[in-house]
Specification:
Helix content is 87%, strand content 0%. By secondary structure, it is mostly helical. The chain has a domain at 1-45.
């Protein structure tokens, strides 16, 4: 129950942060729109040559800002990728440890069988074309050989 409450609080906090970020983005867009509107009204009063030059300068500024935003986003995504790769390594290690702990018990049970198999395998390693398999896999091996 506490875990669910903690997850709910985390989600609520993330949602509030996202809403706040979106509000800030809307405010920034409103300011940008007003600025562009003022610039447009000013350019209408200029000569055609100056209007073209001013338009080019505005476009260069817009593209530069967009490029900077994209670089910032790229940096964030790269940082997130590194974080996720670290988490993946941790989870993979946890899974491997879990699988290893699960296989310890059957290994102890079948130690005598494997000891006998090891002795047989050592003798058979001199032969080419021989198959090495577990006794449990024999029906599957026979079925695959037949098909």
């Amino acid at each position: 129950l506490r875990l669910l409450e903690a997850q709910l609080q985390d989600q609520r906090r993330e949602h509030e942060e996202e809403v706040e970020a979106l509000k800030n983005q809307v405010d920034a867009m409103k300011e940008e729109m007003e600025r562009q509107q003022q610039a447009f009204l000013q350019t209408l009063q200029l000569s055609p040559e100056v209007q073209v030059e001013f338009g080019l300068q505005q476009e260069i500024t817009r593209l530069t800002n967009e490029n900077l935003d994209l670089k910032e986003l790229l940096e964030k995504l790269e940082k997130n990728e590194k974080k996720l790769k670290k988490q993946l390594k941790i989870y993979m290690k946890t899974v491997q440890d879990f699988e290893a702990s699960q296989t310890v018990v059957p290994v102890e049970r079948t130690r005598q069988k494997r000891t006998m198999q090891v002795a047989v395998q050592r003798k058979e390693k001199d032969f080419q074309g021989m198959l090495e398999y577990y006794k449990e896999d024999e029906p599957l091996l026979i079925r695959n050989l037949i098909t």
